[in-house]
Write a structure and sequence with these properties.
Blueprint lengths: L18 E3 L9 E2 L13 E3 L5 H4 L5 E3 L7 E4 L24 H5 L2 E4 L8 E5 L5 E2 L2 H4 L2 E2 L9 H29 L3 E9 L5 E10 L1 H5 L3 H9 L2 H10 L3 H9 L4
Antiparallel strand pairs: 1-7, 2-8, 2-9, 3-5, 4-5, 6-7, 10-11
């Protein structure tokens, strides 16, 4: 298994099949059906995270970093590619486990038409939760009759704006880890109930020895930016591998 980012169509963010910038009157009838169904994330063995989520996510998931440029933080949610152990048959996330904001944001997404422009609200038109006729389906409309945003749309854009800020902070953290040469490719060998071992690859971890060897201006920066705390949470989360095996083999 690889703990890389979940698969999606080429050039599209994970889980998004047909993202579009919402415009009035083009999408005046669009709405959002009630109910929460995380079935779209059922095949994701790893979920993107932002750093503000580390304190919550590390209680349930091993936190790792992607092997591609940018070192994106990820929550490992499965031991096998194509399997998310936290999404049940009916699309519910397991009770008591933190749901990453990347998942909660769907089917909405922040979109910027041009560099430096304000974030506008986008929507995955292919998502099951989206209604093409809100009035007909009893869904929550995204546009008022005059074209202004409804409360549902306002809440969505606020969420997307906050996520964009946290994503940028996470990008800065990943860049700092790479600049300080703190990340190293690793593999997890988990022991299964039958005594066999499963090898999980395709991710990076912070090298604890290299982290503890930081000094001078680099160490001061990491402390000042709160990055040292994030690294400690990341390292502590590696204890969650055992719980992940127990979730995969509950009857063993």
């Amino acid at each position: 298994m690889s703990a890389g980012t979940p698969a999606s169509a080429p050039g599209l963010p994970p889980f998004y099949g047909s993202p579009a910038l919402l415009r009035f009157p083009d999408h005046r009838m669009i709405g959002l059906r009630d109910g929460i169904d995380y079935g779209f994330a059922r095949a994701a063995a790893a979920i993107p995270l932002v750093t503000s989520e580390f304190v919550h996510a590390q209680r349930s998931y091993p936190l790792v970093f992607s092997t591609d440029e940018g070192a994106a933080p990820l929550a490992v949610t499965g031991l096998t590619t194509g399997e998310n152990l936290f999404v049940g048959p009916e699309g519910a996330w397991t009770a008591g486990d933190y749901v990453p904001s990347y998942v909660r944001r769907h089917p909405f997404i922040g979109m910027t038409p041009g560099e430096g422009e304000a974030i506008l609200l986008g929507l995955d038109l292919s998502a099951a939760q989206v209604s093409t006729d809100a009035a007909r389906d009893g869904a929550r409309a995204l546009f008022e009759e005059d074209g202004s945003a409804t409360d549902t749309a306002k809440a969505a854009i606020a969420f997307c704006e906050a996520y964009a800020i946290e994503h940028e902070r996470s990008r800065e953290f990943g860049a700092a880890l790479e600049a300080a040469n703190l990340l190293t490719a690793r593999e997890a060998r988990v022991t299964l109930p039958d005594g066999s071992e499963k090898l999980i690859q395709g991710f990076r971890l912070v090298d604890e020895a290299a982290f503890r060897a930081l000094s001078g201006a680099t160490l001061e920066t990491f402390h000042a930016r709160g990055w040292s705390d994030l690294i400690v949470l990341h390292l502590a989360s590696q204890h969650a591998w055992r719980a992940l095996v127990g979730r995969a083999f509950p009857a063993a």
